[in-house]
User: Which sequence fits this backbone?
């Protein structure tokens, strides 16, 4: 072998050594990376298996709630958690388990939370958690819901769905849906255009329509016909509140009751002795005479009371006082249900979960007349001042403290001399009547002048539900230049009311079944 061949073999050997060295350095990293990826793949598979088992736990309890909607103890009658084997469908072998932790809804209705933890028998330390919230949606699914006509003026604004079973003229602004249950409706050439039924029918319109710049019949927010609003559960809700009320006020033998929420988790109860004669309004109802109830079931309120509060709970010797103090009570942690069989005045700052119902059980099935005006046997709720949540616009967020339901069998009326800027927090329901501000008071508008001030505004945070009509600003009822009510109504839907309503507030439609509200996983 000559020297040249020896040099070539030596060079090859050197290259071989270099390759082996590089391979020796790289290969462990490659193998390690490959093994790591295999382990990651295995972990991913195990986590996915655990997730599917946890998900099966949620599916199981959804099925259980459909069959047993009031059972939050997995049929055991015992407190949880509740463990179940998970059987593979193909092999019929038990390959894992899921454990359920169930949080019932607040007393009086709401959403239940189900937490399911799943794992496999091969890898019990790898767990996945799925949390779902289920409930029956409440009737408070809209910023404004009416069975009758809605006329939304250009000075109104809505943040939340608006629905009418009859038809809507919508000149207002909105950021949400505007729907009606019918395909077409009618309109008129009358000056005020509302309520439509008071004028001769002149033309047919789409059920949701407008003439101004804020609306178009091709608006992406508008839809009709849609499902008819379900008021069927309202009677049951009144009965449930009466049966489950902590405060069931007896007949006052006066004009009704006043409830003042004090902002500290208490409410003060008064009997109403006198109200002010404030003249007429639409629809025309006989005014008070000498401070005496007309017997029509309507109390015309001014400031609502003559001056002074009498501390004598028997209401004897109270002179000209407008109210006599009964007592002050706390709002329990599980919520407060108040049932009153006659007219009711409400104001103050609400702290806690409260539902107030004004209804006469003997008139629960009384039908409204064609104008959506409640029978004179039905109690009304009167709002004479601001009604606010103590924590502001957090409503029932995350089942937080403050939520209010006002349920009147008749009407809900804002009284004369209520604040020029009025705030109302809560879910309002007028079962057979209207929700309205006063109109055509003698001596000028409801704010003390000849017309409603352009700065006047009412802010609703929650939901407004009514069978009859909606009246909050008016034109040409008392003369060509007269405008009354609130110039600027604003609606902001409290989305929390959908699944966390006030205690025993009616559900939207039990027949629709329990629905998923929220789904999260780790």
Assistant:
């Amino acid at each position: 072998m000559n020297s040249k061949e020896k040099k070539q073999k030596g060079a090859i050997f050197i290259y071989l050594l270099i390759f082996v060295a590089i391979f020796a350095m790289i290969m462990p990293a490659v193998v390690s990376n490959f093994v790591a990826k295999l382990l990651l793949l295995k972990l991913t598979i195990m986590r996915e298996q655990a997730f599917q088992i946890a998900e099966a736990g949620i599916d199981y309890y959804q099925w259980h709630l459909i069959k047993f909607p009031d059972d939050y103890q997995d049929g055991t009658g015992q407190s949880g958690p509740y463990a179940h084997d998970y059987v593979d469908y193909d092999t019929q072998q038990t390959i894992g388990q899921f454990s359920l932790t169930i949080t019932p809804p607040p007393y009086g209705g709401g959403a239940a939370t189900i937490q399911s933890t799943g794992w496999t028998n091969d890898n019990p330390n790898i767990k996945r958690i799925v949390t779902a919230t289920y409930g029956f949606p409440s009737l408070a699914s809209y910023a404004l819901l009416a069975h009758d006509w809605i006329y939304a003026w250009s000075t109104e604004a809505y943040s939340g769905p608006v629905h009418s079973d009859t038809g809507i003229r919508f000149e207002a602004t909105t950021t949400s849906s505007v729907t009606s249950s019918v395909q077409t409706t009618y309109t008129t050439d009358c000056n005020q255009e509302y309520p439509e039924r008071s004028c001769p029918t002149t033309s047919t319109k789409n059920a949701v329509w407008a003439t101004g710049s804020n609306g178009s019949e091709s608006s992406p927010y508008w839809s009709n016909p849609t499902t008819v609003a379900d008021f069927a559960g309202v009677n049951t809700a009144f009965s449930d509140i009466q049966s489950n009320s902590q405060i069931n006020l007896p007949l006052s033998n006066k004009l009704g009751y006043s409830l003042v929420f004090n902002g500290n988790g208490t409410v003060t109860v008064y009997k109403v002795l006198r109200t002010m004669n404030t003249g007429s309004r639409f629809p025309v109802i006989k005014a008070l005479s000498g401070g005496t109830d007309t017997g029509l079931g309507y109390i015309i309120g001014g400031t609502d009371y003559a001056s002074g509060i009498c501390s004598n709970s028997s209401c004897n010797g109270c002179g000209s006082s407008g109210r006599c103090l009964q007592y002050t009570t706390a709002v329990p942690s599980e919520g407060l249900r108040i049932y009153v069989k006659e007219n009711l005045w409400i104001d103050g700052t609400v702290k806690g979960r409260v539902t107030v119902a004004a209804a006469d059980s003997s008139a629960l099935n009384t039908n409204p007349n064609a104008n959506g005006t409640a029978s004179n046997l039905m109690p009304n709720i009167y709002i004479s001042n601001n009604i606010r949540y103590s924590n502001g616009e957090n409503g029932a967020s995350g089942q937080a403290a403050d939520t209010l339901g006002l349920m009147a069998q008749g009407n809900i009326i804002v009284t004369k001399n209520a604040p020029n800027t009025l705030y109302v927090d809560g879910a309002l329901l007028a079962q057979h009547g209207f929700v309205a501000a006063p109109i055509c008071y003698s001596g000028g508008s409801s704010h003390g002048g000849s017309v409603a001030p352009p700065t006047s505004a009412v802010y609703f945070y929650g939901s407004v539900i009514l069978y009859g009509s909606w009246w909050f600003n008016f034109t040409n009822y008392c003369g060509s230049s007269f405008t009354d009510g609130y110039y600027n109504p604003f609606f902001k839907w409290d989305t929390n009311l959908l699944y966390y309503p006030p205690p025993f507030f009616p559900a939207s439609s039990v027949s629709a079944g329990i629905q998923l509200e929220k789904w999260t996983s780790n």
DSSP finds two helices and 34 strands in the chain. Residues 231-268+334-505 form one domain. The chain has a mean pLDDT of 76.
